[in-house]
Amino acid sequence: MPARRREPLARDLPAELQVASTNGSTLTDSRGRKYIDFVMGWCVGNFGWRPAAIAKAIERFKGPDYVYPGYAYAPWTELARLLTSLAPRPLTTCFRATGGSEAVDLALQAAMIHTGRRAFLSLEGSYHGNTLGGLSIGASDNREQIKNLLPHCGKVAPPLDAKALRRIEQRLKRRDVAAFVMEPISINLGVLIPEQDAIRRVRDLCRRYGTLFIADEVACGFGRTGRLFACEHFDLDPDMLCVAKAMSGGLAPIGAVIATAPIATSMEENDGAFYSTYGWHPRSVAAAIAAPARSQGEPGPAAHRRCGDERVFPRPPAATRVRPPGGGSHPGPGDRDRCRRRGLRGRHPRQVPPQRAARVDRRIDGAAAAVAGDRQGDRRERARHSGALDMIRRGVAANPSVQLESPRTQRWKVES
Ligand SMILES: Cc1ncc(COP(=O)(O)O)c(C=O)c1O
Question: What are 164-173's pLDDT values in tens digits?
Answer without folding.
Answer: 999 999 999 9
